[in-house]
Amino acid sequence: MSSALAMVLTAAMAVPGNGPEAMSAEMEPPGLDLSGEWEGTYGTDGKQTWNARLIGDTLSLWNRQNKCRMTIRFVDEGGGKLRFGMGGNPPLQLGTYKDEGDRVVISYGYGPKRNQKAILVLRRVKPRK
To answer: Which residue positions in the chain have pLDDT lower than 70?
Structure first.
């Protein structure tokens, strides 16, 4: 019986586009794409809002009093979940995202108990003609 199962699996893998890997690849949506230039806002529990710009792996934040620029790396975990790391740190911080094409909302918990929320809302900057 196990040799018959092995033959079926081998046959499925031999037929291009007919195996389970082809089905899953067609059904999975593309991952989070933050290439190009993005602009928006960064806020923390409604207490403070910053302007935000993401180009490549550089996130710039600014408001009337302060400016900040950091390296950030996002890793899509699938299913609206991501990990990220700032300042060259490995991507260990957990977060969630909602990808709406040219608009992405990223949120994550912070603070001692991760009970405070930060939200980064970005819109893709259209190339100038």
So the answer is: 1-30, 46, 128-129
Identify whether the C-beta of residue 92 lies closer than 8 Å to the C-beta of residue 82.
Answer: no
Q: Of 123, 122, 126, 124, nearest to 43 (Cα)? A: 122
Q: Please count the other Cβ atoms lying within 10 Å of the Cβ belonging to residue 74.
A: 21
Residue 76: φ, ψ to 5°: -75, 125
Q: What's the rounded Cα separation, in Å, for the pair 87 and 94? A: 16
In this structure, the number of other CB atoms found within 10 A of the CB of residue 117 comes to: 14
pLDDT the model gives residue 31: 83
**CA 126 to CA 70: how far, in whole Å?**
23
pLDDT at 7: 33
Give the C-alpha distances (Å, rounded to integers) separating 96 from 11, 48, 124: 39, 20, 18
